[in-house]
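Notes taken during the Thursday session

The instructor put the following on the board and asked us to keep it in front of us for the whole hour. The protein is SURF1-like protein. We were told not to look anything up and to reason only from what is written here. First, the residues (266 in total):
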Amino acid sequence: MNVRWFGAALVILVLAGACVQLGRWQLHRLQEREARNEVTRSNLAAAPTPLAEIVGPDHVVGEQHDWRTAVVTGRYDATKQVVVRYRNVDDRPGFEIVTPLVMADGTAVLVDRGFLPRQGGELAPASVPAVPSGDVTVTGRVRRSERGGHTSGGTPVDGTARLINGPEYGAALGLKLYDGYLTVDHQEPAADPAFDGFPGPEIDNGPHFFYALQWFFFALLAVGGLVYFSRQDVRKSKEPADPAEPESGAESEPESGADADVAVRN
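Then, after some discussion, the predicted structure tokens were revealed:
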């Protein structure tokens, strides 16, 4: 075994270690998802509660609040309504209509009033159902603000946006908004029937366990291959040399008499 073999073995061991760490990371993500699923199940089963009691005085919707059923009463401000583009519900592209609901104390919450499927290649809905006048009571699911990294998709421009983000909408619309929003389950007066509702959350463990198994298998395969080829090299090094082959540096056989005679005459 030479330096080159040791270098290759080191690389294989490093790769195997990386595979093990990736497998452990997938198991960690599985644990996080299981914990999040438990919170979601508990929130879905909770009774409808006033929004202020769920979220608290900081007005920030956190992961622990996601999918709770909240009740809020206020008046829609249709002048600051936003059409959210590039949405997809049940594999159908379309738009979501988000309207601020202003409460008696002056604070407001974004309400996702519903989904409008796209008709043909339209870039905006042909018509948006009007908001009810007067006080409206909305019962809906609490959702966290959507964030898109360094993109500006959460800032409304010309009445449209790509994401629903309370702080960014508040800064653009001049409203004191909750950091989060509601999706309508029930509304009084009733919501326009042109709106489609939203599916519930996906509560499953995802592919993390099987991804972890794959990474552990790759690690085992790498170590197993290293052991196999190492044994092959050791076995070859212990095999005796073939006696039929001349040793390196040995003198060549003497020429036959006839060949020697020819060589002398030449």
